[in-house]
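Margin note from the TA: students keep mixing up input and output lines. Inputs are the sequences; the output is the structure of the whole complex. Example:
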Amino acid sequence: MLRNLCELWRFRALLAALVGRHLRARYRGSLLGFVWSFVNPLCLIAVYALVFKYYIRFDSVENYTLFLFTGLLPWIWFSTALLEACGSISSGGSLITKAMFPPHILPVVSVLTNLANFIFAIPLLLIFMLLSGVLPTSSLLLLPLVMFIELVFLLGISLALSALNVHYRDIQHILGNVITLWFFLCPILYPIENVPEAFRFTMIFNPVAVFTEMYQGLFLEGVVPSFVTLLVSSIVAILSFAIGCRVFNRYRESFAELI
Amino acid sequence: MRIAHYIDQFVNSYFQGLGRGSDIERGSVSLQNVSKRFRKAGSVKKSYTTMKSDILAKFTSGHTPGGHHVEPSVDGDARILHALKDVSIEIPPGASLGLVGRNGSGKSTLLKLIAGIYQPDEGRVQVNGRISALIELGAGFHPDFTGRENVYLGGIMYGLSRAEIDERFDDIIRYAELEDFIDDPVRTYSSGMYMRLGFSLAIHTDPDILLIDEVLAVGDAAFIHRCQETISDFKRRGKTLIFVTHDLPSVVRWCDEAIWLEKGVVRDRGEPKPVIDAYLQRIEEGEQAALDVRNQEYELEREQNDSESSADGAADEALSPGSLEQKRWGNRHVEITNVKMLSNSGEAKWLFHDEDSVVIEVHFELHKVVRDLAFGVGIIRSDGLEVHGINTLIDDIDVPLPEDDAFPARGCFRYSIDRLLLREGSYFLDVAAHREDGLPYDYHHRQYSFSVRSSVGATGVFLPEHKWSFATEYAACDVPSKKRLTQNVGE
């Protein structure tokens, strides 16, 4: 793990340059350009709002659209980053096989690029809150901490999956399905109170559900997560990162041969 | 910024401890008993998809998962390619080493091991110093980014800071001659432009060790010339150069040492000239064997054709001569049964040097009584150019014929060339038996191929015996303002 951290530090300039390039390159050639990074989540939110608010008439939450918005933004970060990171090394091509390129940069770039998109969308969320009459509170000051913990957690999974995917290309296909399931197991479309007591464990032992709840608390209710929640999620995040690094380091030497 | 500085120090000391060559001199490379194996295509697929079997294996025998690890015990396994076998090489700082060998002999694998792209299965690779590697054209470039962006990304990858790249940017672009294209995406670049940018970047990053794999071949003459100067300069500054090439003269020119790899083992090493000569010798032996096989195949084919044509008479007589295909025609009243090329020691071969003497030995059979007979011999270059053509009529040679009652009979003639004097290349040998008025008995067109090797680099089809001479002194011109240039000449 120390080795990976040192390498990330050493190549931080490369990392920054690549993230910047990816952000700019993503919408190159499209008319609306960068606006798409706002339009995409907005469309998704509009669809969910239409179905759940007007068709299914889900009414146990007031300001349902805002509730959706708060839960979906971090989820979009998590799921997109994970899917992108998973295939990042196996599709790295000559960068991995023919150049002296530090391979773990690639999944990290995927995660950071999507984090940047998340951050850019936060002002949009704040505007939406004001329009709905919900005022942000000082608890939002803890937002960077929560995001950082989730970042560490996500980096761990991304490193592990990107490395494993080089050996077992099945993983990226499995991951697509797992992500769908995972989405419905997080309190994004419904509040956690709606989950029957017998199934509450799916919320407690699901780190992403815990993160989702923390975001909703910070934005919507002005609730600061408890110290225990923060501590436990930090430990989980560090464990994830440590395991991710171990898996990655175990497989990294064979990347150039297998791609 | 202070904290960043401390982290930097920590990271640097950490990497020094971890380094692949902390206990050897800076700029040197050391390989000790290095072996590298690959799974061959066809079995590679296995390593992607056998998650199940990997997991099963883990539970049953404690076998390590992850396909990439090849057990040493499978030496005889046909699916394993031994790219390098027990290779030990020490390269001191300031050395320039050329790697030669056939395709697939392990040269590129060796470079990738030194660059750290591959890890050895056995043995130890130690490298001390900053490496720049040009393993493949455009590797490490992002096609959608502009040349400028790629220079920055590449520079950072080689370990330069932004400020350092800023400083060198103009030099890099000027050297690569890409001033006009630097803001275009590199996917629009030609292969020469890719190579120039890659090479320019690599040498402007102050590497201690430069690895080059054949990429320079796509440069134009002017750029290659500049590369040569740069590389000489690089050597003068005591940097280490390792390069793979099939351009053997450049190895002799640039390298202090050459290593000849064959099938993953070091076949020979030392002074470039003898190593390369030995390598060329080996290639020739291989070619000789290949030509033998080819001509044997022709012969077989000919025999088959013969048995067919004897059934329907001389049906192939109508075939038009002069086409590029190999053909045989004639009425076979006289049949050429065997054609050999002999060296001056009497050994049959199909590969000669330009200075060699050659004897063409032709055996023939006279099936029917013939009144007159002439033989012809021709040499055709592989592109169809007739280099040499002669027959007994032109040379006014009478072919002796047996008495009428002695038919059928067999005979033999030899056509001797003192010095072949052909330029390097592949050639066909034509042999024909015909009547004096031109009616062919048996014409073998492009049926035999042979190759010529030459140590002289002259071009064209013909190398006359020649010499150069200069007047030992210069006479002054009558141009009053010019200085006399004669001083050192001729001394």
